[in-house]
Amino acid sequence: MTDKDITIVLCIPGNWQLQADLPVIQDVVIEWRPHDHQLAHAFKHAGLQRFSTEELRAIEKHASIALLSGKGGSLAAAAKMMQAGLTLLKAGGLGIKVETSGKAFNTQAWEELVHMDHDHRFYEAFVLLVKGADNSIHSCGMHNLGFRDTLSDAIGELMDTAELVDIFCIYQILEDPAITDGQTFSTAPDSAVYTIREEPCTFYTPGDYFYNPYGILHLTQAD
User: Taxonomically, which superkingdom (predicted)?
Assistant: First the structure.
């Protein structure tokens, strides 16, 4: 993909009293912020039951927040930010939330992703699926990795649509294929065929953390 000015933003609550208490990481901006009384609710919502009751209580009582910002837009850049996040967790962080997609993890889950020896880890760390009012599904967060997000119209059961978007996003990450408007895609030789349409990102506006400047790949069932 064409290089874009992509920034990955990570939110890590902790009990650091001052900016000087935070570690310094090359090429990563780390900003100290005070307690946010809404943060525990945000982590619970974004964590999808990844947090225990005790972990959420600790987040609720956090004294401060470390907000990490660094270059995204490639797997290498994303890997660096994943490691930076782990560094803060090891320095007293209570959990981590990817502000540029909306996923949250406890320390154990994030560390497992950092050390996973497969590029699938990037999808798990940075990308989630969003259901539309018409039962369409679109991904959110692929811009963190340098790829377009995927949209699929409803193709039957909701889980079938979600699985198609999952597979197509992971295909991009693992294969980095050259994709152009009008190409077709199938998950298997005997499976349904989908036409790929290139579209701008209209789910979010420029400047929004979730906005994908690379655009959207829209999958529609081929005639």
Answer: Bacteria
* Structural domain ending residue among the three candidates 98, 120, 142: 120
Structure tokens at 91: 């320095």
Last residue of a domain, one of 120, 153, 188: 120
Measured CA to CA, the distance from residue 16 to residue 155 in angstroms comes to: 48
Q: How far apart are CA 67 and CA 76, in angstroms?
A: 20
pLDDT digits (tens, 9 = 90+) for 173-211: 999 999 999 999 999 888 999 999 999 999 999 999 999
* 83 has pLDDT over 70: yes
Token pair 């949250």 is found at 104
| pTM exceeds 0.70 for this model | yes
- H, E, C per residue of 71-139: ECCCHHHHHHHHHHHHHHHHCCCCCEEECCCCEEECHHHHHHHHHCCCCHHHHHHHCEEEECCCCCEEE
CA dist 108 → 43, 86, 89, 104 (Å): 15, 10, 10, 12
Residue 65 belongs to what H/E stretch? strand 64-71
Full residue range of the structural domain in which residue 170 is found: 128-221
Domain count, the chain: 2
Question: Which position has the token pair 């079938």?
Answer: 160
